[in-house]
């Protein structure tokens, strides 16, 4: 089988020395990749600079990205050149990317300048509309500094929503067995499964691995694999999760 795996956590640059990211190490993706490789499959592994990754193998292709935009570009490039039998989208993708950054002083100056252009802002509705328009305009401010000065007492960071990578996977690779992932924190098993089923249906996945951060400690990693029939199987370690995913993907692929 020809397998695509995404793993690790994307980062979004604030300036040339700062970024916002998440705590994903890529350890689960690494083990899943190694499990596929051990069974003789070909693996294209898309990951981030600080994430762990499988050891070099003859059948392994490594692609390194950093931002969600770079991830999107890398995947689209791969989809143009090859067809995948399975896609394991375990990467923790940033929901938002930076739009611009402003000091408190600059933000107030820009907002005040915009609002004082209109003399009819005593009306609450008009004022609200003007504020939304002002924020949209300010958000498009091009950040000039390669490193943001640290002299300001308050820094305003504008974030805008990233595209949902998982949403395009089925469209671009309709033949692939698609495994999505969902991480929640401190929820009941029932809610975890319910949310996992929603993600599965929304993105037309074959399976979703739902897990709770509070149940990931050391070697212990409880994950619930959900299929399109609503059936669930639970694993208690990363190795068990990897074995479960690989066996289910192989089984689904053979049935197609």
- Taking all residues together, what is the mean pLDDT? 89
Report the C-alpha radius of gyration, rounded.
22 Å
Multimeric status of the protein = single chain
Count of the separate structural domains: 2
Q: Which stretches are poorly predicted, pLDDT < 50 over at least 5 residues?
A: none
> How many alpha or pi helices?
7
Helix percent band: 25-40%
Strand fraction equals 25-35%
Structure description:
The protein is elongated. The protein has helices at 27-38, 68-81, 104-115, 124-139, 165-172, 189-202, 238-255; strands spanning 2-6, 12-13, 19-20, 42-47, 60-64, 86-89, 96-103, 155-161, 177-184, 207-217, 220-227, 232-237. The protein has two domains: 2-95 and 163-255, Rossmann fold, CATH 3.40.50; 102-160, no CATH class. It contains seven helices and twelve strands. Helix 1 packs across helix 7 (238-255) and helix 3 crosses helix 4 (124-139). 37% of the residues lie in helices and 28% in strands. InterPro entries: CoaB-like_sf, CoaB_strep, DNA/pantothenate-metab_flavo_C. It comes from Enterococcus haemoperoxidus ATCC BAA-382.
Secondary structure layout plus pairing:
Blueprint (H helix, E strand, L loop, with lengths): L1 E5 L5 E2 L5 E2 L6 H12 L3 E6 L12 E5 L3 H14 L4 E4 L6 E8 H12 L8 H16 L15 E7 L3 H8 L4 E8 L4 H14 L4 E11 L2 E8 L4 E6 H18 L1
Parallel strand pairs: 1-4, 1-6, 4-5, 6-9, 9-10
Antiparallel strand pairs: 2-3, 7-8, 10-11, 11-12
Helix pairs in contact: 1-7, 3-4
């Amino acid at each position: 089988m020809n397998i695509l795996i995404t793993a690790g956590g994307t980062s979004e640059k604030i300036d040339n020395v700062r970024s916002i990211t998440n705590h994903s190490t890529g350890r689960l993706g690494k083990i899943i990749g190694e499990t596929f490789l051990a069974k003789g499959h070909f693996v294209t592994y898309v990951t981030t600079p600080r994430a762990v990754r499988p050891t070099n193998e003859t059948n392994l292709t490594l692609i390194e990205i950093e931002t969600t935009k770079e991830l999107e570009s890398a995947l689209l490039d791969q989809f143009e050149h090859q067809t995948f039998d399975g896609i394991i989208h375990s990467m923790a993708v940033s929901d938002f990317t930076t739009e611009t950054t402003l000091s408190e002083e600059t933000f107030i100056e820009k907002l005040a300048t915009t609002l004082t252009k209109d003399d009819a802002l005593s009306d609450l509705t008009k004022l609200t509309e003007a504020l939304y328009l002002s924020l949209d305009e300010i958000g498009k401010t091009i950040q000039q500094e390669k490193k943001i000065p640290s002299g300001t007492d308050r820094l305003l960071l504008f974030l805008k929503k990233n595209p949902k990578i998982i949403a395009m996977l089925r469209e671009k690779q309709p033949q692939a067995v698609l495994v999505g992932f969902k991480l929640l924190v401190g929820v009941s098993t029932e809610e975890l499964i319910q949310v996992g089923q929603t993600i599965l249906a929304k993105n037309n996945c074959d399976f979703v691995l739902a897990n709770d951060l509070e149940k990931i400690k050391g070697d212990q990693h409880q994950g619930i694999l959900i299929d399109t029939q609503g059936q669930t199987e639970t694993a208690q370690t990363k190795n068990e999760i990897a074995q479960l995913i690989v066996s289910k993907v192989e089984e689904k692929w053979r049935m197609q």
